[in-house]
Structure formats: C-alpha cells, structure tokens
Amino acid sequence: MYFQLLGETQFWRGGQEVRIGPQQRRLLLAVLLLNANESVHRERIFQLLWGDPLPRSATGSLQAHVSRLRAALGLDRGHAASCGVALRTVGAGYLITVPGEHVDAHRFEAMVSRAQSSDAAEALALYGQALDLWRGPPLSDITNERARMELCLPLEERRLDVLTDQIDLRIELGAWSGLIAELTALSSRFPGRPRFAAQLMILLYRGGRTADALEVFRRVRELMDREFGLDPPGRLSWLETAILRNDPVLQEDRFVIGGRYWGTAVDQDGCRPMQGADKNFASRRT
After folding, report:
1. CB-based contacts of 138: which residues, under 8 Å, 6+ apart?
2. Of 47, 72, 100, which residue sits at a domain end?
3. Which residues form the OmpR/PhoB-type domain (predicted)?
4. From edge to edge, which strands make up the β-sheet containing 16-17?
5. Residues spanned by the domain of 36
6. Helices 195-206 and 179-189, packing angle to 10 deg
C-alpha cells in the first residue's frame, strides 16, 4: 500500500492503482495524509474543501466522503488495517494512521533527515533519492486554489530548499556535470530565490568565466528591481565584490560547505563573519 502526493494524488495497492473518486475526496485524503497520525478538525477540512460560504450539505457530504474513502482504502475489508492503515473519527475531526514509509511526502522528509546527518557523499545520494520521489507539482490534480496555496506551496518551497542543499553538495564534491545549465534555468525560473544565482556565480567563476558570473549578478539586480522593487541581498552583492577582487576564498571547498557563502557573508580570508551581514531575502530601499 502506497500513497503519492508529490505529483498527482494516487493510491496504490498490490501494484495496482486504486481510484479514490472525485477531486474533493482526493483532497480530503491528501489533507489527512499530510497530517498523518494527527487529528484534523472538521472545520479545517470544511475550509479546504468548500471554503466560504459553507454549503448546508457540507457536514453530510464530508461524512459521505469519509465513508467512501474508507471503502476505497479497503478498510471495510481489512486490507488497509493489515498494512497499519486506519481512518477514524476523533472528536470533531478525523485521523488517518499510516506508516511514514507508505506516503511519498513522509518518505521524502525521512530521506532528507538522514542526509542531514550523513557525510557529504552519502548525503548527496540521499538527496537525489528524495528528489526522485517527485513526479511533478504536488497534488497536481487538485485545482482548489485555497488548497493549492495552503498545502502545495509549502511542499514546493520545501523541495526547492532541498534542491538548493543538494546543489551545494554537488559543488563541494565537484559533481558539476550539467549543473551550470540547470542553475541558469533555476535562477531564471525562481527569481525570488537568489541563492540559485549565487551558486551559478560561484560555478562560473571557478570555471574561469568571470564575466559571465558578473553578468548573472547584473541580470538578478535588474530582475529584482523590475519584479519586486528590491535590491539584491547583501550576500549576493558581497559575492559580486569578491569576484571582482578575485578573492581566493571563492575557490576553497569550505566556502560552499553547508551553504556557508549564504548563511553569513564572510570577510576576505573566509573565516570571520562580516558585521551586519544581511540575513533578509533582499535589501529594501530606503
């Protein structure tokens, strides 16, 4: 038995996909699985499935969805129970009990947690396995805008955080194959995440392409001004200055370990944090 949320919402049993039913029922399953082993109050479910104004039939419809979801999961025949899966009413809410390894979103987090306590080579492999669980945008079959904002956006942000950490490790370990092209696309697609631009600048500089690295900064500065009315983060500006002066710290492995280039700006010997390093997304103009 396996549940997939990192892409379309799907349920598999015995190697076969089992149809859950209409979109609201799939969304109900997703809400319960993302909060697996915790009770979800029915008011929270009402808001995600129907929003305001709440239809008069919401309570009866929710009860019907839960009943049919139990049937789809095989709880009425004992299939799910044999795998440690249960769906029950708890007070004014519902709780699904499921082993974490049976839900791709929870497997993803477990692999990331293991990676964070592993050496660099093993961590890189674990990050790769975790990211491979993603088959597309999370809950891609759900069109409910509120649900997408509240459920999907945090999942996608988490994926990008992990991808950023994985890229740091690839730079540290010299696994650069295809990375410049990948970062070029990422920095263009996600201008609100200038750390991708920082990683690209470091790679280009290390590859002897100083002019291209500085061009990345120029494009980011123009884009952030146009899209957000902001200046680039202080750490990105510091990186531009370090490239201009050919700072030797940019070539050191320790400069990228754990995202050090982004966690705090560093002085020219790469050892002491700069006072007043900007920790915000970007520098707001005064």
Report:
1. 5, 6, 7, 105, 151, 152, 155, 156, 159
2. 100
3. 1-98
4. 2-4, 10-13, 16-17
5. 2-100
6. 150
Lowest mean pLDDT among 38-47, 59-68, 222-231: 222-231
Answer yes or no: is 245 within a domain: yes
Taking alpha carbons only, the member of 226, 153, 139, 239 closest to residue 196 is 239
Beta carbons of 163 and 131 less than 8 angstroms apart:
yes
The phi, psi pair for 39, rounded to 5°, reads -75, 140
Q: Which residues, in sequence order, are CB contacts of 256 under 8 Å at separation 6+?
A: 168, 171, 172, 202
261 in any annotated domain:
yes
Q: Is the peptide bond before 53 cis (omega within 30 degrees of 0)?
A: yes
Number of domains comprising the chain: 2
The count of other CB atoms within 10 Å of the CB of residue 251 is: 12
Question: Cα separation of 213 and 203, whole Å?
Answer: 8
Three-state secondary-structure class, residue 101: helix
**Rounded distance, CA 264 to CA 212, Å?**
24
The mean-pLDDT minimum among 25-29, 52-56, 276-280 falls in: 276-280
pLDDT by residue (tens digit) across 146-166? 999 999 999 999 999 999 999
Residue 15's CATH number: 1.10.10.10
